[in-house]
């Protein structure tokens, strides 16, 4: 257990370091925001972060981890307590940074650069992981499976939201690609020779609409039709789309995915079409945050002039949920000061790239770094994290 620094002194030093690096933190956030890249294509964002880490700390980051060329890793310190900071930087199609991942990346970058000079004094190893494709491909799930998180004792990140909240409250979720295959025919001269794949899709949609009445609390189904025929005078021989199920737990998710499957099979059975159901390679799990780390984060809010609001209503999903099933973690919301702002909208994207987003990035860096100090210097919390005992 390190005894070189007291907690107050360590927090004072990381606050000063974040403030000294304020312009760089904001610049990272603004540059990523101005140049949105969707998941698995975040080449410029990842390169920007890797270059800035090297320029600011002298730490050489590794770009490209396992099967993810836009993931990266930087590590500093040699202490036995390993704390992983997660940076997301992917954007949404058309909307850009409507989820504010530019702020997540800048906050993690700022916290890493603030902790780097005192990591050994705190007896910690600080790992910064660039985790791509949270929105569309579960980058953290791949990184977990490929060992990038191995050795972690605590994983931390902050996510922008309308207001400050200690916990995000996401669903477990999973997606299914659904493809119906029928048989084309002339829609006027010989419709009886066709098997209408779009009719199969319509029956599935109707069945899902009716099934919603019997869904369990906190279960959801939503999706899109991607194709359903090429011309109105041809019986559609194919139709398909993507559907998602969400639920409060992995077990409840399994049950709602079964509902989607049955509804699709009903459409196929009624029309005589064939159906192919292809689940994605992963599911997002529900988020299980660590009470001790959450308490430390909450106690640090006052230092940046923030107050935690009411818990967020359940919504969305995140691959940080999968991390939380393996390691103690936190995933609080850093507010943009607009209680009616809705993520995944152009309005939220505009906030994330303006002054409220700048403040959130800087405050997020300070809060993450201060919470890491608590994890390092609070004897009970440090011991529990190192031993893996329950909070």
UniProtKB/TrEMBL annotation:
GO biological process, one term: folic acid catabolic process
GO MF entries: dipeptidase activity; para-aminobenzoyl-glutamate hydrolase activity
Alphabetical keyword list: Hydrolase
Ranges of residues in domain Peptidase M20 dimerisation: 174-267
InterPro entries: Amidohydrolase (IPR017439), Bact_exopeptidase_dim_dom (IPR036264), Peptidase_M20 (IPR002933), Peptidase_M20/M20A_hydrolases (IPR052030), Peptidase_M20_dimer (IPR011650), Xaa-Arg_dipeptidase (IPR017144)
GO CC entries: cytoplasm
Region forming the signal peptide: none
The keyword Protein transport is assigned to this record: no
Superkingdom: Bacteria
Entry protein name: Peptidase M20 domain-containing protein 2
Source organism of the structure: Saccharopolyspora shandongensis
């Amino acid at each position: 257990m390190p005894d070189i620094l007291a907690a107050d002194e360590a927090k004072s030093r990381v606050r000063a370091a974040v403030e000294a690096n304020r312009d760089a933190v904001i610049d990272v956030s603004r540059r990523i925001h101005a140049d949105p890249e969707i998941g698995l294509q975040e080449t410029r964002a990842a390169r920007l972060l890797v270059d800035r880490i090297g320029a600011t700390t002298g730490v050489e980051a590794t770009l490209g981890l396992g099967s993810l060329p836009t993931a990266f890793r930087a590590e500093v310190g040699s202490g036995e307590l390993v704390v992983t900071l997660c940076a997301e930087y992917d954007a949404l199609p058309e909307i850009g940074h409507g989820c504010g991942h530019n702020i997540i990346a800048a906050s993690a970058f700022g916290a890493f650069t603030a902790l780097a000079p005192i990591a050994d004094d705190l007896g910690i190893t600080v790992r910064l992981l660039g985790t791509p494709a949270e929105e569309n491909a579960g980058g953290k799930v791949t990184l977990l499976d490929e060992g990038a998180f191995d050795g972690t004792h605590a994983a931390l990140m902050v996510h922008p939201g309308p207001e400050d909240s200690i916990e995000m409250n996401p669903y477990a979720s999973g997606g299914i690609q659904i493809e119906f295959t029928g048989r084309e025919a002339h829609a006027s001269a010989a419709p009886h020779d066709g098997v209408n794949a779009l009719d199969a899709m319509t029956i599935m949609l109707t069945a899902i609409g009716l099934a919603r009445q019997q869904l369990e609390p906190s279960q959801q189904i939503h999706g899109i039709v991607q194709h359903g025929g090429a011309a109105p005078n041809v019986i559609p021989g194919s139709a398909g789309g993507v559907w998602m199920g969400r639920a409060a737990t992995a077990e409840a998710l399994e049950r709602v995915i079964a509902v989607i499957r049955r509804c699709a099979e009903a459409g196929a059975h009624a029309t005589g079409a064939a159906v192919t159901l292809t689940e994605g390679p992963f599911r997002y799990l529900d988020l299980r945050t660590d009470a001790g780390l959450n308490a430390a984060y909450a106690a640090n809010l006052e230092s940046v002039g923030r107050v935690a609001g009411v818990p967020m209503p359940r919504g969305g999903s995140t691959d940080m949920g999968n991390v939380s099933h393996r390691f103690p973690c936190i995933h609080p919301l850093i507010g943009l000061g607009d209680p009616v702002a809705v993520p995944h909208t152009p309005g939220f994207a505009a906030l994330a790239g303006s002054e409220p987003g700048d403040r959130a990035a800087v405050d997020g860096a300070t809060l993450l770094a201060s919470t890491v100090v608590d994890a390092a210097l609070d004897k009970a919390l440090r011991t529990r994290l190192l031993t893996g005992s329950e909070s």
